[in-house]
Specification:
TIM Barrel, 50% helix, 397 residues, six-stranded parallel β-sheet, alpha/beta
């Protein structure tokens, strides 16, 4: 009899926990600062107000199922692309078209107040984040035009950086030279024009994104900026020493600046054993990957194709959801709960953590935080409140 009572108590507790996390998630403003579906729209003609289940991580219906309220869409191109500004606008056009066709489901917003209004209307509030300073083509007027189109952050560099800043890839280059490892002034960090970009962004109210930045560029930004910054999709270097992750002193500096770190779901950034597994996978399938790239397939799409073809091999490579939570928890313990958020990189990563199969699974993050002992008010901050605070602070004159 006693055993039966205990089992009933456990089951009742589990039901309460399920109700609790679902209620918390439904009431929270859930923000994701980095989704790459626009890249696939531009490259593949992907139409994301259609059902893309099994093809992509995201589509309009699944965002709603996942309880997402605010999506900042990445506008991305490789740093070596010619006419990158035109390509950026082409990606923006694809979101504009979807919003025009679905005014009852998604709306582009330009500020904090409009965002809250859209959320109250149960619409997805959409903004752009331009991933790579090369897309402004060394022209502050183009930066301002992108801002007017709805870009609310600029990632100063991607892996291949503009001439006026150095990326994490640059600054870890073994043989740095101008254009590959050094900026146009022959140094690491920001040039004079790079500093002008930061100042112009502060003036506009456009969030400065330090994901992908090299260490020297990062510290140059910290010295110059008058507004809180973001890392739109980065994780913790102390847990996984990847060049794209943030070191403790950088996390502390972002907290002191009043910014926020939006944790990336990329397995290579949250699981230190993933790189070895990935290398073994592509070594095994080297002949096929070489054939695909020689035929002209982009490396990212080649990887995506092989992971899907050999899904039985790829599945065990995915890290547990708990590893993603570990990165959030590390930031909270290091600097406080006001400085962590979510920057999934959905549709820009080939594999995701276990259980986080697509955008419908955001509630599982809330569940994991509840199970970790986080109170509702702190969960609300992590899910979106912290990013909204930074957005509002950047708008202030």
């Amino acid at each position: 009899m006693k055993t039966r009572i205990i089992l009933l108590g456990i089951l009742f507790g589990q039901q309460l926990s399920a109700q609790s996390y679902k209620k918390i998630h439904a009431k929270a403003i859930v923000v994701d600062t980095h989704n790459d579906i626009l890249m696939q729209a531009a490259d593949r003609g992907t139409v994301f107000d259609q059902d893309l289940t099994g093809k992509t991580h995201s589509d309009l219906t699944r965002w709603k199922k996942g309880g997402l309220d605010v999506q900042i869409f990445s506008v991305y191109s490789d740093g070596g692309l010619k006419n990158a500004y035109a390509y950026a606008n082409r990606q923006m056009d694809s979101l504009d078209a979807v919003a025009l066709r679905n005014p009852d489901k998604i709306i582009k917003v330009s500020n904090y107040a409009d965002m809250l209004r859209a959320v109250k209307q149960h619409k997805i509030a959409a903004m752009f984040g331009v991933e790579g300073g090369h897309m402004i083509e060394d022209d502050l007027a183009k930066l301002e035009t992108l801002y007017k189109r709805g870009a609310r952050y600029l990632t100063l560099t991607h892996n291949v950086a503009p001439a006026w800043a150095t990326s994490a890839a640059d600054e870890t280059s073994p043989n740095p030279v101008i254009g590959k490892g050094l900026n146009s002034e022959g140094k690491k960090g920001l040039t004079d024009f790079g500093r002008q970009v930061v100042q112009k962004m502060n003036e506009l109210g456009m969030m400065i994104d330090v994901s992908h930045l090299g260490d020297q560029s990062f510290w140059d930004v910290i010295k110059i900026t008058t507004k809180p910054i973001i890392a739109s999709h980065s994780s913790v270097y102390s847990l996984v020493p990847h060049r794209r992750n943030l070191k403790d002193e950088q996390i502390k500096a972002i907290a002191k600046n009043g910014g926020v770190i939006q944790v990336n779901f990329n397995p290579g950034f949250i699981d230190k054993s993933f790189g070895e597994k990935e290398n073994a996978f592509f070594k095994k399938h080297a002949a096929e990957s070489d054939s695909l790239t020689k035929a002209g397939m982009d490396e990212w799409y080649m990887m995506d194709w092989l992971y899907k073809k050999y899904s039985a091999e790829a599945e065990p490579m995915r890290p547990p959801l708990s590893m993603l939570i570990d990165h959030i928890d590390y930031i909270v313990k290091l600097v406080g709960v006001d400085y962590a958020g979510l920057g999934s990189d959905f549709d820009g990563i080939n594999l995701t953590p276990q259980k986080l199969d697509d955008v419908t699974t955001y509630p599982l993050i809330t569940k994991a935080l509840v199970e970790k002992g986080y109170p509702k008010k702190d969960i609300n901050k992590i899910l979106g409140g912290n990013l909204l605070r930074v957005l509002k602070a950047n708008e202030a004159k």
